[in-house]
UniProtKB/TrEMBL annotation:
Keywords annotated in UniProt: Elongation factor, Protein biosynthesis
Keyword Protein biosynthesis: yes
Gene3D superfamilies per UniProt: Transcription elongation factor, GreA/GreB, C-terminal domain
Pfam families, A to Z: GreA_GreB (PF01272)
Species assigned in the record: Photobacterium gaetbulicola Gung47
Residues that span the membrane, as ranges: none
PROSITE patterns according to UniProt: GREAB_2
GO molecular function: DNA binding; RNA polymerase binding; translation elongation factor activity
UniProt domain Transcription elongation factor GreA/GreB C-terminal: residue ranges: 8-82
Domain of life: Bacteria
Name of the protein in its database record: Transcription elongation factor GreB
One record GO biological process: DNA-templated transcription elongation
Length: 83
């Protein structure tokens, strides 16, 4: 377990709950966790995933480009929370 730090305010780091949206209006909401914590949870992604790596240090209203097997995908950061 990693404790929340006020230095994280407004940016995506380990443990963050993040909501993102694409140009088609599709939204996703998930928490960034360790790779051993994702099993059995549809709302958790591994810190090692391409999505989490692309989101690290981003802020609300930032655009994020994620490399996927289907090509590059663009997302917009709607919200970040830690509680």
């Amino acid at each position: 377990m990693v404790d929340y730090s006020p230095q994280q305010d407004g940016k995506v780091f380990f443990g963050a709950w993040v909501e993102i949206e694409n140009d088609e209006g599709e939204t996703k909401s998930f928490r960034i966790v360790g790779p051993d914590e994702i099993y059995g949870r549809n709302d958790y992604i591994s810190i090692d995933s391409p999505m989490a790596r692309a989101l690290l240090k981003k802020e609300v209203d930032d655009d994020v480009e994620v490399n996927t097997p289907a090509g590059k995908k663009e997302w917009f950061v709607n919200s970040i929370r830690y509680r």
